[in-house]
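If you are new to this repository, start here. Below is one unmodified record pulled from the training split, so you can see the exact layout before writing a loader.
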Amino acid sequence: MEEGQAALHPAVQPLAFLLGSWRGQGEGSYPPTISPFRYSEELQFSHNPNKPVISYSQKTWKLNSGEPMHAESGYWRPKLDGTIEVVIAQSTGLVEVQKGAYDAKGNVMLRSTMIGNASKVKEITRHFKVENGELSYVVEMSTNVMSLQEHLRASLAKI
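And here is the target side for that same chain:
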């Protein structure tokens, strides 16, 4: 640790590999209601050493025009037992409360326990993986008429 650099909170230490900014591209769809699309993305994970929490923010924009698409932010609360609680507010007004687990191999698996302000979305899962310096994720979603299926996928590099 460099001089003057604060230590990580013990609950955050196992997820230190996430901390920082990540940028890359992704793709999404949700047949039959959402046609395939591609996007650029930036994720940020930051941490105050005095708190057992990671701040999270995400924004996407269209590949060709740079026009903003989606944004969300929230908090990740890892526990020392390998479980994690996550709260995310989306720019669409939807709010997710998720619980899951993380492991020493760079995986974070999340499943919604509550989705607020959503008339159609019933469940969301998120699987993040950091491997060989790359952060990838898959988001699955179910609605009142469609079972759980892939909605988004992206690969990002630390910047």
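Two things worth knowing about this chain: The CA atoms of residues 92 and 125 lie 18 Å apart. The chain is about 0% helix and 65% strand.
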